[in-house]
Amino acid sequence: CGGDSRRKKAAESSESHHHHHHHHSHSAPEISRIITDPTTGRRYCRGKVLGKGGFAKCYEMTDLTTNKVYAAKIIPHSRVAKPHQREKIDKEIELHRMLNHRHIVQFFHYFEDKENIYILLEYCSRRSMAHILKARKVLTAPEVRYYLRQIVSGLKYLHEQEILHRDLKLGNFFINDAMELKVGDFGLAARLEPLEHRRRTICGTPNYLSPEVLNKQGHGCESDIWALGCVM
Predict the structure, then answer these.
(1) Is 167 helix (H, G, I), strand (E, B) or coil?
(2) What is the pLDDT along the chain (232 residues), one digit of tens a residue?
(3) Which of 9, 44, 64, 86 lies 20 to 30 angstroms, CA to CA, from 208?
């Protein structure tokens, strides 16, 4: 599928360090290189692994018709066999697909075949703020302002749509070629409920828990803003 062979080699050599020693017997069957969307007949070529999440692995994926590159979240049906797991994925898709903003990872398309669920998202070539900070060790104040302004812009849009992110952290801020920041990963996102209807549970394993969430008062906009302060 083309792609920069230098980059491929680097990815392969770095992958070979991790993966070849421990093949899990229970791991999902190998995902094929060419994936066809059964509803549209479009063909995609799966590239390298970009990251791993809860249920999903993220891959580079190229639309063979347009040559457009996406980040594809690929979720084996076996990992979401239980109804509550499937509901989580459906909710993430339902919330994410209505969002459209310069600083939110764009949702493009979703389809399933017999083995997997595929979610096609905007490809961010420079990975996440977590990677950038790890490589750089420290950022200057102007850079921090540059990135924070974009996070705030994306978050303001989310809250205007009455959606909470609930897992704001460096690993969920993605950077594209143009050094633009995109807020991503809506796996823990939820609609904003009025105070009396809020679920009082502490969801998932978010990094930065605000006092009101810890005190079981539910999660509102202010809890995302707390996490943003922690990020800074």
Answers:
(1) coil
(2) 554 544 444 444 444 455 444 444 455 567 889 999 999 999 999 999 999 877 899 999 999 999 999 999 999 999 999 999 999 999 999 999 999 999 999 999 999 999 999 999 999 999 999 999 999 999 999 999 999 999 999 999 999 999 999 999 999 999 999 999 999 999 999 998 877 677 777 665 667 888 877 776 778 899 999 999 999 8
(3) 86
User: Residue 6: helix, strand or coil by DSSP?
Assistant: helix
User: 25: how many CB neighbours lie within 10 A of its CB?
Assistant: 4
Catalytic residue among 167, 177, 185, 224: 167
Hey, is 132 helix, strand or coil? helix
Q: In the chain, count H helices and then E strands.
A: 6, 10
| DSSP code per residue over 12-52 | HHHHHHHHTT---TTSPPPPPSEEE-TTT--EEEEEEEEEE
User: Active site includes 90?
Assistant: no
Distance between the two ends of the chain, CA-based, in angstroms?
Answer: 39
d(CA 162, CA 159): 5
Any idea which fold 34-121 has? Answer: Phosphorylase Kinase; domain 1 (3.30.200)
Total count of residues recorded for the chain: 232
82 is in an annotated binding site: yes
Domain ranges of the chain: 34-121, 127-231
Residues ≥6 apart with Cβ < 8 Å to 45: 1, 33, 34, 35, 61, 62, 64
The answer to whether the Cα torsion of 183, 184, 187, 191 is positive or negative is positive
